[in-house]
Each structure stands twice: as C-alpha cells, then as structure tokens.
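Hey team,

Sharing the Alcohol oxidase run so nobody has to redo it. Sequence (578 residues) first:
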Amino acid sequence: MLAPTLTVLSLFSTVGLCKLYENVAELPTLQYDFVIVGGGTAGNVLASRLTENNKVSVLVLEAGPTWNYTTTPQVGANGVAFPFLRGYMLGGCSAHNGLAYTRGAASDFDRYANLTGDDGWSWNNMLPYFLKNEKWSAPADNHDTKGQFNPAFHGTQGPIDVSVRGYPWSEFEGHVLQTTKELSEEFPFQEDYNAGTPLGIGWMQFTIGGGQRSSSATGYLTSSVLSRPNLHVLLHAQVSKLVNPVQSRVAPSEPLTFQGVQFRFGNSLFVANATKEIILSAGPVGSPSILQHSGVGDATILKRLGIPTVLNLPSVGKNASEHAYSGLSWAVNSNQTVESLFQNPALYDQAFAQWNKTKTGPFVDTSPGTMVGWLRLAPDSPAFKVHADPSPGPDAPHFEVLFQPFGLDIFGPGPYSPTISLVLAMVSPVSRGSVLINSTDPFSAPLIDPGLLSNDFDALAMAEGLQLLLKFVGAPNWKENRYLGAPSVDIASMTPDEVVAYVRGASGPGYHLVGTLGMSPQGAPYGCVDPDLKVKGFAGLRVVDASVLPIVPAAHTQAATYVVAERAADLIKQQWGL
Ligand SMILES: *[C@@H]1O[C@H](CO)[C@@H](O)[C@H](O)[C@H]1NC(C)=O
Ligand SMILES: *[C@@H]1O[C@H](CO)[C@@H](O)[C@H](O)[C@H]1NC(C)=O
Ligand SMILES: *[C@@H]1O[C@H](CO)[C@@H](O)[C@H](O)[C@H]1NC(C)=O
Ligand SMILES: *[C@@H]1O[C@H](CO)[C@@H](O)[C@H](O)[C@H]1NC(C)=O
Ligand SMILES: *[C@@H]1O[C@H](CO)[C@@H](O)[C@H](O)[C@H]1NC(C)=O
Ligand SMILES: *[C@@H]1O[C@H](CO)[C@@H](O)[C@H](O)[C@H]1NC(C)=O
Ligand SMILES: *[C@@H]1O[C@H](CO)[C@@H](O)[C@H](O)[C@H]1NC(C)=O
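Structure output:
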C-alpha cells in the first residue's frame, strides 16, 4: 500500500550520479548482452547481480519520473475510478511505496511452488533469497528490539535495510500490546510475522535504515555498482515495444525471439539490441502492456486493435490480483498522535528539521509505523458459503491490520484532532482483474482493472474484518482514562448488509497488483511465463517483476518482488554459465 508517508524521498542520497546516462547520445553502444526494461524494484537487482561478472554487458532503460494512472471504474467499489500510482523512477515502487517489509506466509510460496510445479519457489527455497536481500538494521531511536523480531529469520549483509519503527508512539502502542494480552486467544502477540507463520499482532518491519528509505536504487545501484563499466543505466527512456521478432520457426515448439527493444528518448525512437536476453521489469502494469504492444497477448484483443499477432498468449494481462484496503478511525483522548504535529506548524517544522539534521524524530517512519496484525476469518464465516477459502493455508491470513497513531484523513485539509486508525486489508482476495491495452499507441495508458471487490466473497470478508477491528478496540484497556472516543463511522449500529455496502463505498486499492504475467507449469495451456520466468514460446525473453506471481501474497509485494529478482538473477546466471 502506498501509505501516507512522512518519510522524505531521499533517492539520490547514496546513489552516485556519475554513471547514470541522461542522454541517449552519450551511450557508447546500443548493443548489450542483456537489456533490462525498467530500473525498478526488480530491475536494479538484476542490473547489480548480472554485472558482478565483468564480461556481461547490461543496459537498463528507465522511463522516470513518477506519473499517474487511473483504474477503470470499479464495479465492486461503487463504480469509482481510483488513481493508481506506479513508481516510474529509479527504484520503481520501492522508491515511493509505504516501505512495508512483509514477506507473506510460507504457504504463499509453497502455493507458488505448487502452481508452477517448481519447488524452487517454495518458502524453504526462497528463504535464503530473503536473507540475501536484507540487512537488518537498528531503528533510528536505537531502542532495544529484543522480542520485537526473530534474528534467525533475517539477513545482515544484504543491500536493503530493514528495521522496526524508529520513533515511539508509546501510549497507542501500549494499548495495542495490552490487547494482545487481554484478548490473547483471538489476537495473540506475534514476535516476527516474517518467519513464515505470520498470524498475530506484532511490530511492523520497514525498508528503512538510519531513518531513511532503503530502495532498490539506494541498495542495489550504489556508486560502486554504477561505476562498473559493463553497466549502463539510461534515464528518460520509455520503452514502447519489443521489435524485430525472428519468426522463422518451422515447428511450434521452436521458440521465437525479439532482437531489440524500442524506446522513446526525447521525441525520437531508438532500438537497443540484446544478444542474450531482453528482461521485462516494467512492473505489473508496464510489462504486460509492452508485451501486448509487441504483438504477444490475446489474439482477439490484438486483432481488434490492428496489432499484428506475433504469438497468441491469451493469459497476458489477465488474472490480476490486488488487495482492497479500508479502515476505521477513532477520536482519542490523548495528545500522542501525529495530529499533534499537523495541528502545530512550528512543531511540524521542528520535527522535519530534526529529521533533516539527525535522521531521528517522528519523520523517520512511514505511516508512521507502529504495529501490524495478520488475522483470519472465523472458520464458520458466512463468506465461506459464497466461495471456498482462498487463503493458501491455515497459517496464512485473510486480513492485514495496520495500527496507526493518526486518523485516516490526516492528509485532508483539517482541522486536526487526536485520532487513531486501524487500516484493514483483505489480503487473500478471490477477485481477479486485468491490465489490457486499448490503443495501438504504446505511450497511452492501458486499462487497469484491479477487480476490486468484484467477487462478493471479498466484500463480505472485508465487512467481517471491520467487525474484528471493533472487537479489538473493545478490549477493556481502550477504555482506561477514557482513551478511546467515538468512531468515525458507527459500524456497530449497521445491519450486515449495510456494512457490506459501506465497505464497497470506503475501500481502495493497495497498489499490490500482481499476476498480469503469471507463472504456470512448463507446457501449461494458460499462464504467461514458465517457472524460469521465460515468456512462453520465446527464447531470450524473460519477465522479472511482480507480474509473474500468479496470486497476490498475503503481504505488501515489495519483499516478494525482491526475492523473485534475486532468484531470477541466479536462474539467468545458471543458464548462461555466468
Ligand atoms: C539491432 O538489430 C537490428 C536487427 O537485427 C539491426 O538492424 C541493427 O543494426 C542492430 N543494432 C545495433 C546497434 O547493433
Ligand atoms: C496525480 O494526479 C492528481 C490528479 O490529477 C494530481 O493531483 C497529483 O499531483 C498527481 N500526482 C503525481 C505524482 O503526478
Ligand atoms: C498441487 O496441489 C494439489 C492439491 O493438493 C495436488 O493435487 C497437486 O499434485 C499439486 N501439484 C504440484 C505440481 O505439486
Ligand atoms: C488464472 O490462473 C489460474 C491458476 O491460478 C488458471 O487456472 C487460469 O487458467 C488462469 N486464467 C487465465 C485467463 O490465465
Ligand atoms: C493536549 O494538549 C493541550 C495543550 O497543551 C492540553 O491543554 C490538553 O490537556 C492535552 N490533552 C491531553 C488529553 O493530554
Ligand atoms: C535540510 O538540510 C540541508 C543541509 O543539509 C539544508 O540546506 C536545508 O535547508 C534543510 N532543510 C530544512 C527544511 O531544514
Ligand atoms: C477504448 O478505446 C475505444 C476506441 O478508441 C474508446 O472508444 C474507449 O473510450 C476506450 N476505453 C477507455 C476506457 O479508455
């Protein structure tokens, strides 16, 4: 989720600007072993790992800067078309997301192994990649983190900083913790939700180190990586499509190849050739769009648009899954909420100056972070009459709850009064959507349909999730010192149908879209890429980003995207003997 973020983007703080090309004319060549489309969360991992071997030449094409998309009107959410931001900049979404570091359940990955027939995607086989990606870091306030995470499940040498919150909101956190004691049956304390069995409530982990954002740009494109002569990164280069398909195959089993990547720089089009592989890392919106503009997709759609079909691959852009987010706010009788900063411009400026100078204080966290919960529907939930349990296993959650010491409308115009909020996400959705092109112009936005709450199961489940939030703040400790005040919406006096209607009008996307180029077993008649991430029917063409996850994990997708890319780097090195 793109959480309201107080963490200032410090993209270039550790990125040497020296080896980033800002002009195509300065690139020494347009032929490389590997051309990576997109310098985002995944693309920079590949750029860094593949160029560890100095005989390998790599070009990264990055469109940058950030821009806006809008979804199609969401039928399941009262027809609203939501803004849909994607991180078109170095670091991609890892440079603008809410910094959540959540891996998902072991069963999410075991299900990927099952859906692909490749045990390499199982939790046990992916855990080493989580550790390789991660550098566990002290929080900005240096508080004692014993009992707040389990060191056995964390890396200490990787490129991406991970830490728990670095500024205390003790009164609010105290109530959350006390509830895990008072209602321990339903809301148990969880020491570390990133160890494979996430259920329970514990301290949230963030891709933050030293009070600053850690992104794939700062972590993987360090100045020493950027100074490698075999790595070129071109900015302001927006890819339109793949070109020069070699279609000479005589048998359908013989793979096709694209020789080049066409991109726009300024007002001109250029082509960069890949002698080994083209790697699409343009994200779940960009990658399927580029493939469709290249003539790879559902032939019916391509034909309707007049795009010559290179390969009919009907699953391209389909099977998108996304998380719906909603939540509730309560007034509180306390000054220890973020509103205290928003109410008082002098205090706000002081807090920002503190962060700017010492990387400490309330600006060190996103959201700002405190705690997170992972919960399941009751086993006898009426939602299960609508659809079988979509979660990957009994240890995986249906819900995420973000505990926030501020109201949901903190970025509204005010006035601000002390508020807390519990944000709810349905993290095992049944709904599916799509990303399909609607124009022959590769620079026009595709139709983005996350399918939000389009299946009734998801709306029913969300409604039950809101009841769980009420139960949570119903624990006795919230009444102490008249701490908890009135809720922003009186769910308690609504009928079940009214709560479902409320959910449909008060939910939005989590920006966790995946699945638009999903993996399936080798030879399967559906799916877009094989378990080694090669596009079906092609040689020398891979997709390495969140698009390949066949189902959204019960987690923010940043961590999963990093490990997909880390494993992909090994698969590619293996294939080419690098
Ligand atoms: C890229 O490949 C195309 C088609 O094979 C060729 O015409 C073009 O000269 C190549 N460009 C470079 C820079 O090698
Ligand atoms: C996205 O679009 C909205 C509405 O047009 C605008 O207010 C906002 O500034 C844009 N954000 C970015 C990052 O371009
Ligand atoms: C996936 O799980 C199903 C159901 O448990 C099982 O029948 C199937 O054989 C599994 N497939 C693979 C490739 O492991
Ligand atoms: C979507 O994925 C499922 C497996 O999760 C598969 O059975 C189905 O065929 C896919 N649909 C499309 C349109 O690719
Ligand atoms: C909040 O701060 C104001 C002004 O400092 C003070 O008058 C008020 O008593 C405080 N409220 C609480 C609940 O601490
Ligand atoms: C942040 O710090 C820089 C110097 O490190 C200074 O130039 C800038 O004015 C500071 N900004 C604020 C808002 O304090
Ligand atoms: C899709 O394209 C058609 C034909 O250009 C156009 O009429 C329609 O408005 C487009 N749909 C959207 C949602 O942009």
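The longest strand covers residues 268-280.

Ping me if you want the raw files.
A.
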